[in-house]
Amino acid sequence: MLLEFGARNFYSFKEGFEVSMRLGDSCPNKISKGKSYANVLAIKGANASGKTNVLKVFWFLKYFILDSFNQKPSEDLFFDSFFNNSKPTDIYIIFLDNKIEYRYELKITTKKILSETLYRKDKRDTKIIERKNNKIIFRIDEFRTLDIMKLRDNASLVSTANQYAIDEIKIIYNLFEKFVSNVLPLGRDNYFFGKDETSKFYFNNQRVFQFVKNILAISDTGIKDISIEKDKNMITKEITYYPLFHYDINAKNNFLLFENQSSGIQALFLQLGLYKTVLDIGGVLILDEFDINLHPDLLPMLIDFFDDEEKNPNNAQLIFTTHHTDIMDKLGKYRVVLVNKEDNESYLYRLDEIQGDILRNDRSIVQKYKEGKIGGKPRLMI
Question: What is the pTM assigned to this prediction?
Answer without folding.
Answer: 0.92
